[in-house]
Amino acid sequence: MTLTQAEKAAVVTIWAKVATQSDAIGAESLERLFSSYPQTKTYFPHFDLSQGSVQLRGHGSKVMNAIGEAVKNIDDIRSALAKLSELHAYILRVDPVNFKLLSHCILCSVAARYPSDFTPEVHAAWDKFLSSVSSVLTEKYR
After folding, report:
1. Is the pLDDT of residue 90 over 60?
2. Which of 2, 24, 88, 141 makes the best surface tag, with the fewest CB within 10 Å?
3. pLDDT band at residue 96, thresholds of 50, 70 and 90?
4. Global confidence as pTM
């Protein structure tokens, strides 16, 4: 799934705003994930999953740092996230569907924070970008 130049520009433009609040958006996205899809909690039995917990904020920060790496390397997301893909596939053994669920939650969180910037075109670009990220993270499962 190749992003057009216009889609890449839309992703990078919104990321400039998201980056300033990425830790909060990451935590919010995980809260949405665990609330909407409680089965995903099984991967975090050792975490305090209550709203605003240190562990939730910490993992949200890691998630958004990975998204930031993907944005910085938008022309080679595969290389940028290769180690993360291996970690989740071979060591953590996360069900691949969870990446799509989390992508949706990130999309919702970003849209809620930046409604005037999140035009239909930006929404489509971010959806495509996050789908590419999910695809890269699940390709080691094949």
Report:
1. no
2. 2
3. confident
4. 0.91
